Amino acid sequence: MDKFEERTIASETIFKGKVVKLQVDEVSLPDGKTSKREIIKHPGAVAVIPVTKDNKILFVEQYRKPLEKTLVEIPAGKLEPGEKPEITAKRELEEETGYTTNELTFLTSFYTSPGFADEIIHLYITKDLRLLEEEVAGDEDEFVDILELSLEEAEQLVKDQRIHDVKTAYAVLYLRLLESK
User: Fold this and answer.
1) In whole angstroms, what is the distance from residue 62 CA to residue 64 CA?
2) 148-152 — which CB contacts under 8 Å span 24+ positions?
3) For this structure, is 140 an active site residue?
4) Model confidence pLDDT, tens digit, residues 121-171
5) Under the phi-then-psi rule, with left for phi > 0, alpha for psi from -120 to 50, and beta for the rest, what region is 133?
6) Which of 28, 53, 89, 104 is most buried, by the most CB atoms less than 10 A from its CB?
7) Residue 30 DSSP code
8) In whole angstroms, what is the distance from residue 32 CA to residue 35 CA?
9) Which one of 134, 135, 140, 152 is the catalytic residue?
């Protein structure tokens, strides 16, 4: 047993939506006291770093209602039940950018907000992009523009807080680390 482990005594689902479930757990702390934890359960997601033949990165620009602003992000999306992450990655790439690939390379996985959510994102990269002959229908409530940026331009958008989400900032950092090897 981990010396910091909190054991669940009781769990109550407060809300179950299309994307997340909110539960409140009563836990036993390592010192024997009890506390409450509000936890968001998420099915997980994928993100893709699409690199073009001329070494540009494809990003999507879209409005994010929780933040009340537009962000520049790498293509990403939620895992469907029972779906393998690489299938989700290819689907999201096609829906959001109009490109496809047959070569997805897994880079890493990471948690987005471990203090209150269990969401994990699986990060992939592809350097084998092909424009789809026919457009794939994406989510009907999703509106995006495509941007092609160099790594340096992406780093500037991080500084300018136009890239302001962890998955995309992490991807830009990861690319810089790969480039320095």
Assistant:
1) 6
2) 148/52, 148/56, 148/57, 148/58, 148/59, 149/56, 149/57, 149/59, 149/72, 150/55, 150/56, 150/57, 151/55, 151/57, 151/175, 151/176, 151/179
3) yes
4) 999 999 999 999 877 665 667 688 999 999 999 999 999 999 999 999 999
5) alpha
6) 89
7) T
8) 10
9) 140
